[in-house]
Amino acid sequence: MTSAEAAPRPVTGSGGAEPLLEVTDLVRHYPLTRGVLLRRQVGAVRAVDGVSFTLAAGRTLGVVGESGCGKSTLARLLVGLERPTSGLVRYRGEDITRLSGRALRAVRRNIQMVFQDPYTSLNPRMTVGDIIGEPFEIHPEAAPRGDRRGRVRELLELVGLDPEHASRYPHQFSGGQRQRVGIARALALRPEVVVADEPVSALDVSVQAQVVNLMRRLQDELGLAYVVIAHDLSVVRHISDQVAVMYLGRIAEYGTGEQIHDHATHPYTQALLSAVPVPDPRLRDRGGRILLTGDVPSPADPPSGCRFRTRCWKATGRCAEQAPPLAVPAALADDPTPARHPSACHYAQTRAPDA
Ligand SMILES: Nc1ncnc2c1ncn2[C@@H]1O[C@H](COP(=O)(O)OP(=O)(O)OP(=O)(O)O)[C@@H](O)[C@H]1O
Ligand code: SF4
Ligand SMILES: [Mg+2]
């Protein structure tokens, strides 16, 4: 496998605009060690293994994939909570992976994270006012001490919560309200980029749409760029300008919400889509269900060539030998339909409706 195959050039999601975030060949391997006294490395978990994309100001990239494919690791790398094994994360042209100290803190102000679980990510012993105002302790320059209470009230209002409730504790709020607190905290420093790691998956379905709508409104009002992570394509489809489908640490397919949802060409995406339950029985099984067999392989020992090949019904010998690059497939280069978009498959094609 050549590095060119493993690490495609960034596929542009910025629609021609100057990228705010530019991620190139991002890799994060966790060492696997053995032994108690003499710990030696016996391998590595390839959690993120060659991810590239760009994100423009005010735009949204959705990232979807099954559990363990590297989504949260990618999120932590983007906000600087972890350093990559290799690769670059450029924010406004500057590689943030090499920064430390004050320079890193300054950049991190602009790239904030919303965590998956609003039940565990908020300190139960702090009031929500203190939680939302905590970033000001790390970045005192963002709000002079005398202004902080006012800023916290503004932030509560911004996310649709009662400013009078600043002195309450997290357990006095519902799940949806707690996630609003998490969002307010992420916005305290007025970031340009918000990375939201499964922001609604811990919430009741009835509340999910409200939180997604809030995120949309905040994006419009504040001009935020989002990376929104989900395991379900339906969550990100309507809020994303671009969607990246991840499998075992890599992007399998990349395109607009419409391209991915209605014109998927990668077998893995097609399988993900066919697994989405369709409530209307007349539509059920339209296009035929694809039942994925076999477990997801371990990221410590991924298959050679195409990582999806052990579960792919179209796999051939070529798939075991050559890793397909993430690029517009040659066979679709002149296709006039939305099927023409990057797909890391040697045999990329859309599914016939009655296939
Ligand atoms: N700190 C760590 N040390 C070792 N392995 C790790 C670490 N963090 C994550 N991993 C492994 O890296 C892989 C990717 O994990 P990650 O949490 O990024 O996946 P995910 O897509 O967010 O999954 P989920 O949908 O379950 O949240 C998994 O195999 C996980 O066990
Ligand atoms: S490259 Fe081969 S194994 Fe991989 S998705 Fe395409 S057909 Fe399947
Ligand atoms: Mg995760």
Automatic annotation (TrEMBL):
<feature type="domain" description="ABC transporter">
    <location>
        <begin position="21"/>
        <end position="273"/>
    </location>
</feature>
<protein>
    <submittedName>
        <fullName>Dipeptide ABC transporter ATP-binding protein</fullName>
    </submittedName>
</protein>
<keyword id="KW-0813">Transport</keyword>
<dbReference type="InterPro" id="IPR003593">
    <property type="entry name" value="AAA+_ATPase"/>
</dbReference>
<keyword id="KW-0067">ATP-binding</keyword>
<comment type="similarity">
    <text>Belongs to the ABC transporter superfamily.</text>
</comment>
<dbReference type="GO" id="GO:0005524">
    <property type="term" value="F:ATP binding"/>
</dbReference>
<dbReference type="Pfam" id="PF08352">
    <property type="entry name" value="oligo_HPY"/>
</dbReference>
<dbReference type="InterPro" id="IPR017871">
    <property type="entry name" value="ABC_transporter-like_CS"/>
</dbReference>
<dbReference type="InterPro" id="IPR027417">
    <property type="entry name" value="P-loop_NTPase"/>
</dbReference>
<dbReference type="InterPro" id="IPR013563">
    <property type="entry name" value="Oligopep_ABC_C"/>
</dbReference>
<dbReference type="InterPro" id="IPR003439">
    <property type="entry name" value="ABC_transporter-like_ATP-bd"/>
</dbReference>
<keyword id="KW-0547">Nucleotide-binding</keyword>
<dbReference type="InterPro" id="IPR050319">
    <property type="entry name" value="ABC_transp_ATP-bind"/>
</dbReference>
<feature type="region of interest" description="Disordered">
    <location>
        <begin position="334"/>
        <end position="355"/>
    </location>
</feature>
<dbReference type="Pfam" id="PF00005">
    <property type="entry name" value="ABC_tran"/>
</dbReference>
